[in-house]
Design brief:
By secondary structure, this protein is α+β, with helices and mostly antiparallel strands. It contains 22 helices and 32 strands. It has four domains: 3-130; 137-284, Transferase(Phosphotransferase) domain 1 (Transferase(Phosphotransferase), domain 1, Orthogonal Bundle), CATH 1.10.510; 305-347 and 354-650, Alpha-Beta Barrel (TIM Barrel); 656-724, Immunoglobulin-like (Sandwich). The longest helix is centred in the middle third of the chain and has 28 residues, at 314-341.
């Protein structure tokens, strides 16, 4: 051992003892340490064929201290010769622990290391630390995954551990056995000590500074789902990770995975015993992970897309292809006809623009005030299976209040992974929802974002089982209109396949769909040749043809993510990566409102969509109102834009659309008082539009009067309102 550690003799042992434990009573207990690890007074923490860790009370002059003693078993002569040169495992552990302690990196306080050598053989070896009864990183992850799956808590845990691992490496220590079980994390209710403590240090190496390869080797031993691992590495790097770090980490991880797969062959007896004696909870299977992120209002995917695809059944792809080929012929002429008819028929606008809410008890009164100022806008309330009956009851109370006040209320029943895995749990949840809102709900949407595995559904077969389990509930409440299948985005092959999976005779009263176009920018931007209008037309054509739903299309979720809102945005969750974002679909607050008003005009005035529900009223990352400051909510421009839209044309009749230029459009409405309102914009380059003759007033998208002195208006992305007598 390094002489700087001030070795002393303690009975038959030689080693190091902390100055805090050099009083006669402590030294006497160390002289009899062999009995301490086998006596009746010790508590066995872990043991295997060679090593054992026990908890005992050490009598010190300042008072008793709970300590953990790790006893290392005998090894062969070659290992002993190597340990003579580099130090025993206990000596290496104490050396590393003291360095970590001096660098402010967490590790249990070292108390002693004691070795007994005879004739060049290490007969006994002990490492003593202060006992720390914290859970391991593994235990805490398992607890969160299984019992408290909150994304913010998982991210906080990852960041705490990542920063500590970085601190250990920056102190010149490479652990070389950095499994989750060798990292202790402070319980949330215990303050003061470092948040992470590293244990099992006997394999550690002192490398100052460690290179990317050494750092990557440590990280590769951590067990995390692939996207959480990506987040962890970014937290660790505190900057965009270096390519060398990522490349080495991936190589070491693959190598360690191969090593792990052969463990049962290399140590068959040990592995059988380990499986037989395992009593602690283990990680859930990756496919069963379901973690809720309250900040972005959604579950988060724990796996990268390449790893998610491993769990997708290959036959599902064939089913989607077959369903698409089967539908292509008959759907095409319906689609063409609907496009030809778009904007040619009058549309009554009343009740067609809705707001989706996720009610919270402490916010109800404030949200009610915001709703009251939106001219009787219909409401869609979500019931989440994972939240429980207390939240369902509060949502029901609000639904009944809104209904009694004359507001049209609809409901969305949202599953979690348990509901998918256990169809009986899904049926019980649906029964609970329907029994609460039957007679109140205009319609109920069944399931949510069924083509996104983060919402718990991994296959068409799982969706089919859910809908079969729902049939008895449907039979109990035949009078309640239901909508679905509530797929998301422009993934109509999946939509077609999902409709085909419905039980025989099952029929939705409308096809409800979540249609985002934010990845493509403005609503007029095309995706593989389909802009918003064409997407609406194709979805409506599918509804008309399918036989599984009435000829009605409801967009039950849409919005744009807002720039600068970080993890509160659906595209920023669960972690805001360092460095510049690429292909970021987020937009500014003004653009957000402009896009949404244009989306509403295209969807509703085309006659293709019966109603559009804006998700949602209050949310930091995507809502009409920003709740960043809990005490002072801020109405975004989009809230005022929707207010003015509803005030101007919310009870009007759309009568025609003009397209005066290449990218400009003017939507004309007849108002109940006999006046006329036009809403005009250009989604490309600015265009000039002649002002109609007569008594004309012009307003911007928030309702502010725009003075016009020329004979034309400059049209840009912001919709402007023309009020004509």
């Amino acid at each position: 051992m390094d002489a700087a550690l001030d070795e002393i003799d303690v009975g038959p042992y030689r080693g190091w003892v902390s100055p805090a434990c050099r009083d006669p009573s402590s030294l006497e207990q160390f002289r009899r340490i062999a009995g301490s690890v086998t006596g009746e007074q010790c508590q066995i923490l872990t043991e295997n064929e060679t090593d054992r860790i026990v908890r005992v009370s050490l009598a010190c002059e300042s008072g008793p201290i709970d300590v953990a003693i790790k006893s290392y078993g005998k090894r062969n002569a070659a290992r002993d010769r190597a340990d003579r040169l580099s130090g025993s495992r206990a000596a290496r552990s104490i050396r590393t622990a003291l360095i970590l302690q001096a660098s402010g990196v967490g590790t249990p306080r070292p108390m002693a290391c004691l070795d007994r050598w005879e004739q060049g053989r290490l007969l006994e070896s002990y490492f003593v630390t202060e006992y720390v009864g914290w859970p391991s990183f593994k235990d805490e992850l398992v607890r969160l995954y299984r019992h408290d799956p909150q994304c913010a808590k998982v991210m906080a845990l990852l960041e705490t551990v990542a920063n500590s691992v970085r601190g250990m490496h920056d102190a010149g220590v490479v652990h070389r056995d950095l499994g989750n079980q060798n990292i202790l994390v402070r319980p949330a209710d215990e303050a003061g000590a470092p948040g992470v403590q590293f244990i099992d240090l006997n394999r550690a190496r002192l490398i100052d500074p460690p290179n990317a390869r050494e750092r990557a080797r440590d990280i590769s031993r951590l067990t995390l789902p692939s996207d959480f691992l990506r987040v962890f590495i970014e937290m660790y790097a505190q900057a965009p990770p270096e390519p060398d770090l990522l490349r080495c980490e991936d190589r070491y991880r693959r190598s360690f995975a191969r090593h792990t797969r052969t463990r049962a062959l290399r140590h068959p007896v040990r592995e059988r015993r380990r499986k037989r004696e395992r009593v602690e909870e283990d990680y859930p299977p990756e496919r069963e992970l379901w973690i809720w992120d309250e900040r972005s209002g959604q579950p988060v995917g724990a796996l990268k897309s390449i790893d998610r695809r491993r769990y997708y059944p290959k036959p599902d792809v064939l089913r989607q292809v077959a369903s698409t080929l089967r539908a292509a012929g008959p759907v095409r002429p319906i689609y063409v006809k609907l496009l030809d008819e778009a904007f040619t028929q009058p549309v009554e606008m009343a009740g067609r623009v809705g707001i989706t809410l996720h009610p919270h008890e402490e916010h109800v009164e404030r949200e009610q005030d915001l709703l009251d100022r939106l001219a009787g806008v219909p409401v869609l309330l979500r019931y989440y299976r994972h939240e429980g009956e207390g939240d369902w009851d509060r949502a029901t109370e609000w639904a009944r209040h809104l209904h009694s006040a004359g507001t049209a209320v609809s409901i969305a029943a949202v599953q979690d992974r348990i509901a998918v895995r256990e169809p009986s749990a899904w049926a019980e949840f649906c029964e609970a929802v329907f029994s609460r809102v039957a007679g109140v709900a205009s319609w109920i949407e069944i399931a949510h974002a069924i083509n996104r595995s983060k919402w718990g559904i991994w296959s068409l077969a799982e969706y089919r089982r859910m809908m079969e389990a729902f049939l008895p509930v449907r039979a109990h409440f035949p009078e309640v209109p239901i909508t679905g299948p509530a797929a998301i985005d422009f993934e109509y092959p999946f939509l077609l396949a999902a409709l085909k999976e419905l039980p025989g005779g099952f029929r939705f009263s409308a096809l409800s769909h979540h249609l985002y176009v934010d990845r493509r920018g403005a609503p007029e931007r095309a995706q593989t040749g389909y802009d918003s209008l064409r997407k609406f037309a194709l979805a409506r054509a599918i509804a008309r043809w399918s036989g599984h739903c009435e000829d009605r299309l409801i967009i039950s979720e849409t919005n744009w993510p807002l720039a600068g809102t970080g993890v509160y945005s659906p595209v920023g969750a669960p972690y805001q990566s360092p460095g510049a974002r690429r292909n970021d679909p987020s937009v500014g607050e003004d653009e957000y409102g402009h896009f949404m008003i244009r989306y509403l005009l295209i969807a509703l005035c085309s006659g293709l969509v019966e109603a559009v529900y804006w998700w949602r009223l209050v949310a930091r990352g995507y809502g009409l109102v920003d709740d960043t400051d809990p005490a002072n909510w801020r109405e975004r421009p989009a809230y005022r834009m929707l207010q003015f839209f509803l005030q101007s044309v919310g009870t009007s009749r759309f009568v025609r659309r003009e397209t005066p230029g290449p990218t400009s459009a003017v939507y004309w409405f007849d108002n109940p008082d006999g006046t006329h309102t036009g809403i005009a914009y250009a989604h490309g380059d600015p265009e000039r539009w002649p002002i109609p003759p007569g008594d004309i007033r012009v307003f911007d998208s928030e309702g502010n009067r725009v003075e016009t002195s020329a004979d034309s208006i400059k049209l840009q992305g912001e919709p402007v309102y023309i009020l004509a007598s």
